[in-house]
Amino acid sequence: MEPLRYKLIVQYDGTHFAGFQIQPHDRTVQGEIQRALKIMTKGKEVIIHGSGRTDSGVHAKGQVIHFDYPIEIPVKNMQRALNSLTTDEIFVQEVSLVDADFHARYNTSGKKYQYRVDLNAIPDPFKRLYTLHHPYPIDMKKLKDALKDLEGEHDFSSFCASNSGREDKVRTVYEASVYEDTFNNELVFTFRGNGFLYNMVRIFVGTLLQIANGLRPADEIQRLLEVKDRNQAGPTAKPQGLYLMEVYYDSSKAKKGTDYQEDSVLGEQVQDELDHSIK
């Protein structure tokens, strides 16, 4: 039987992971999911492919991955098994079967990120892993005006880590916005685009906060887009405030009629094996 390709939407708390991508000596999200899949296949390696990398400390509410699995398992059973075998830091939100040519990374048409900034004067220990603490005055009008300058197609060389290695730094930002979460006294930035360079969102935030504080002029974004020099932009904001929210695809390529019934003979046999392996 030919392997089936599964597409998953995964949430994770990135605090105690050295990023998404597998590394030889560090704990990663990819490594944790592949460990669970190896248990399910009784020792056979299953390689997963993500829509993109997230750095150490960065979180995800809508990371997309795919992998080829050697036997047919109903999507609900696949979800149940993985959620049983991974730690509580990872949750498989959705599972679907897709065509063999679907690729979680190469078929993406865009992504959505959010970044959360805690404005409280005193640091909250319960927010330290999920927001950037920034207890300084914010000029919301200057901030919103500067965000608008990021929208559209631009060369974002000034907002890309110098060691990224990518030559083409032209991207299109469809949305760059912010709102005040008054209940939590936080700023919530949203960025949607057709692609993002390494550390691009975090450099956006580091620069925008300096504009909102009055440390940089209101038209600074326009100047930085013109000079194309990372050294002239603001600092890279810390990773813990960043969330990958959603990944967009032109078409899901999901197969029809392959969400097998839970009471199918195949489903019962596979689930019995999975329940036994989990125990």
From TrEMBL:
Family annotation (Pfam families): PseudoU_synth_1
Binding positions for substrate per the UniProt entry: 113
Region (Disordered): 255-279
InterPro entries: PsdUridine_synth_cat_dom_sf (IPR020103), PsdUridine_synth_TruA (IPR001406), PsdUridine_synth_TruA_a/b_dom (IPR020097), PsdUridine_synth_TruA_C (IPR020095), TruA/RsuA/RluB/E/F_N (IPR020094)
Catalytic activity: uridine(38/39/40) in tRNA = pseudouridine(38/39/40) in tRNA
Enzyme Commission numbers on file: 5.4.99.12
Active site: residue positions: 55 (nucleophile)
Enzyme class: isomerase
Alphabetical GO biological process terms: tRNA pseudouridine synthesis
GO MF annotation terms: RNA binding; tRNA pseudouridine(38-40) synthase activity
UniProt keyword list: Isomerase, tRNA processing
Stretches assigned to the Pseudouridine synthase I TruA alpha/beta domain: 9-107, 146-250
Keyword Isomerase included in the entry's annotation: yes
Description of how the protein assembles with itself and partners: Homodimer.
Assigned protein family: Belongs to the tRNA pseudouridine synthase TruA family.
Function (record text): Formation of pseudouridine at positions 38, 39 and 40 in the anticodon stem and loop of transfer RNAs.
Entry protein name: tRNA pseudouridine synthase A
Lineage: Bacteria, Bacillati, Bacillota, Bacilli, Lactobacillales
